[in-house]
Design brief:
Helix content is 26%, strand content 22%.
Length: 120
């Protein structure tokens, strides 16, 4: 069976094909899975893909992920690991979730820090 497309159909079909292939081949936040306390760095990479960057200090690792709302959220999505086990996460991206208790849940509103005056 052979399918032929008229010039007008090719004009519409080709961009749709390119868009479909781009969506299928691009890493998608929407297809990401939840992460859980106790998972390893490899587990996080399997669920969310490669991070933007990873920082390490002592027993702690910090995996930073883009989330599409850096300007409005004020932070990247961050997964915090201690001795290669997830202990906390800050998640703002749609389609990502953390099944533990986050130290910074999305519904938490910013508020000023009360600083005690220093004695003279």
């Amino acid at each position: 069976m052979r399918i032929t497309l008229s010039a007008g159909m090719r004009f519409v079909a080709f961009p749709a094909l390119v868009l479909s292939l781009t969506v299928l081949s691009a890493p998608s936040v929407l297809s990401a899975q939840a992460i859980k306390p106790g998972q390893s760095e490899a587990d996080v990479r399997a669920a969310w893909g490669e991070p933007l960057t990873v920082r390490k200090l002592g027993d702690y690792s910090y995996m930073f992920y883009t989330n599409g709302c850096l300007k409005t959220c004020g932070t990247y999505d961050v997964v915090i690991l201690e001795k290669d086990q997830v202990v906390d996460a800050i998640v703002r991206a749609q389609g990502r979730s953390y099944e533990g208790v986050s130290s910074s849940p999305p519904e938490r509103k910013p508020e000023p820090t009360n600083v005690a005056p220093t004695a003279p």
